[in-house]
């Protein structure tokens, strides 16, 4: 074969970068490297390196035909050996030093059989001349020889493991488990050498080596510090012996074990043994008794130390003593979440780790950086420590095993669990491949093109390996960041962690006592709700068991926890099988907490939510009221799917019901200001009327077989509706106005408009699962005796001849927002001179306004109502404030344009700045108006039905106070604040309105 002229293209296609060097190596090796063997080399991480290292190994063996023929004859051996040579220069160097060990990779069972941990331990002990069957094995080889023999045997086992990992695609957790078994056996053999060094005095102490970190979790890397804690006790029969001698023997054993593993010799080193996780860290004694450990953990240990102990397990030395230590610390580990600030401390510690990453490494840190391995591990460990108190199934120390249990148990969503498992496996595999190259402890992804190419190919990314690796890494890093934020900062964690362990288990006895202590009026009924929600082994019941300890606490923070729990049960039974429901409560921000507070404080919101359970999803969103335009668009789209007018309007009302929930939830949670609540309800009513007007018009045309409407219709908002000040219980006060199209018959046009107006009122008042919208047209000319609809000309004639001052006052709040734009504009032009008279009011008109107000105060206050507590007609209430503002508008809007607004607060602000009232008085009235409006809305939210008087029932008052933001027990403070503001407002009304 003429390699120089015929093989360069082939070599390039196989992945070689330096074809000249490759051709030279092939010429040196001879024809034994045939095309099939060359193809195997081309599948390695770095074909150039694999070929170069093969040439070195052939030279080192002195038996080129034997090695090369074995590779040519056995594809399995070739794959294993060449995969190692192409991925790890460190293991290639080891093979060159010990060339006979290449035969280790000829074992045909290697691809399917994992060596047992005890077999690995026995081989390592035998390598240093220790008896594996002895209770305390002692090395018998000379010290330097034993230390080197341990390194050679460690590398031999590591070589076999790496070959299986690279050639047979071992799952990363299997490779990590084997590495952990190898490390445990190495510690045992190192301890045998340490016993030889210490001599007979070692028998004075029992020493257990407790694995921590990745070794403890059975998930060690190829190269990692091995974190340990040393525990000792006097040996059996040594009671009463010199305590210092025992301590000295244990300390010497631990110190020598560290040196055996960490020292550099002609055979290199193994890995550092790090005991810094012991009590007091490096400043503390290297070894302690169990009693000493217990005393430290009970008095001084910090949160992170218990998190570290989650992975503690005995791996070498006196295993019985090690198990005793683990049993001692386990209760402390699984109660650590109850420590004050546990969740916050854990979260802060993770942030500190990120902050201390060197800037030059931040973007390439695989372990500590954002979206790295630590993000997964911290999230999993935090979930374990919080929920593992109640559920022992989720306590495995291995990250992927724990994640699987958390996913199976419903603590992590299935899709999230799968994504996190995939990302963690990818990141751990990449970490392994990085470390394998030179067997160095590093977690930084290299930036060099050649190194990235080798890593990509080692992970089977042969097509554009650098770009493919970068895409895969970025994808998994992004997923880890997202899921870490979602799981690690889940609000539910802090709430569950704050509940004492026995109470968090929801056993009948503990739950019953806790329910009574939390303030549930009927603990037995509450227990029945709990049993209904949590019975069984389904995933739904499991997630409910995780949710309810925190939910019970949140319900108890409301004025009616029993109602909260009962409402939660009804909604859960309605939505329990809906995939998103429990997932949303568990994962999405403050949804569960918001839901609990709403159910325990607002009957109005609970009622809406029972009719619109999908609203639970909205609790994770911005609850600000929407503009009218998108609501109209959605309503018309929903209505358009129905030909029947009643069904069409029910679809419109369903949208309204959902948006009522948005507004009410934002109000009850105090995320929406009272003025914005009024505007939101007004815009929602605008949208509802606009959509219903179109449905009613379509029906009227169909009944009359009309292609076009004979008249153009507008709906004029009046009263609180016109003032953008609707409350939940308000009717929609309106005027209907129409203008026949050119050439239309007036009688036909009026009949059509009458039918549309009647249909709007009827359809929106139909009984249904949503709150009806009462459309009230009683403010029209002649009241109930007058026609329901009038033309513009008719309105103009009436106002010119018959209008009274009270009608001009009512028109102050007229806002033309629904229906034909031209008719609306012309109506406003018609009424402006009437409601904003250029010369203001005459003295007689002022007297008339005051007379009417006095009559209202006297006649409309319900019998038995307390004038101090009536929200609308009481002293300093809404009527007092609004009549005062309206009198100012009628008297002065002719010369002060800023007063020409239907909104009370806007008009009041304009009056203050125009000097019509003092700014202080304007502020007092504005604050009083906001207070009364908030209280009025809160009464409806709390009771579930309208009320114009501050409730007298203590529980209802408490609910109103909580919705207003007062702490528990502050009902009297709420009432006193209300009375004080009303008293101050009444004083201003006396001066400004009554003169």
From TrEMBL:
Task: Report the function annotation for this chain.
Answer: Involved in the regulation of glutamine synthetase GlnA, a key enzyme in the process to assimilate ammonia. When cellular nitrogen levels are high, the C-terminal adenylyl transferase (AT) inactivates GlnA by covalent transfer of an adenylyl group from ATP to specific tyrosine residue of GlnA, thus reducing its activity. Conversely, when nitrogen levels are low, the N-terminal adenylyl removase (AR) activates GlnA by removing the adenylyl group by phosphorolysis, increasing its activity.
Q: Which InterPro entries match?
A: GlnE (IPR023057), GlnE_rpt_dom (IPR005190), NT_sf (IPR043519), PII_UdlTrfase/GS_AdlTrfase (IPR013546)
Say yes or no: keyword Transferase present: yes
Q: Does the keyword RNA-binding apply?
A: no
Where does the PII-uridylyltransferase/Glutamine-synthetase adenylyltransferase domain start and stop, copy by copy?
Answer: 348-488, 854-992
- Which reactions are catalysed by this chain? [glutamine synthetase]-O(4)-(5'-adenylyl)-L-tyrosine + phosphate = [glutamine synthetase]-L-tyrosine + ADP; [glutamine synthetase]-L-tyrosine + ATP = [glutamine synthetase]-O(4)-(5'-adenylyl)-L-tyrosine + diphosphate
Which cofactors go with this protein?
Mg(2+)
Name of a matching Pfam family = GlnD_UR_UTase
Residue ranges of every copy of the Glutamate-ammonia ligase adenylyltransferase repeated domain listed in the record: 80-323, 593-827
Domain of life, per lineage? Bacteria
**Stretches for region Adenylyl transferase:** 500-995
Family classification: Belongs to the GlnE family.
Q: Where is this region: Adenylyl removase?
A: 1-492
Q: What does UniProt list as this organism's lineage?
A: Bacteria, Bacillati, Actinomycetota, Actinomycetes, Propionibacteriales
Q: What is this protein called?
A: Bifunctional glutamine synthetase adenylyltransferase/adenylyl-removing enzyme
Which keywords are on file for this protein?
ATP-binding, Ligase, Magnesium, Multifunctional enzyme, Nucleotide-binding, Nucleotidyltransferase, Transferase
What Gene Ontology terms describe what this protein does at the molecular function level? [glutamate-ammonia-ligase] adenylyltransferase activity; [glutamine synthetase]-adenylyl-L-tyrosine phosphorylase activity; ATP binding; ligase activity; magnesium ion binding
Looking at its record, which EC class is this enzyme?
transferase
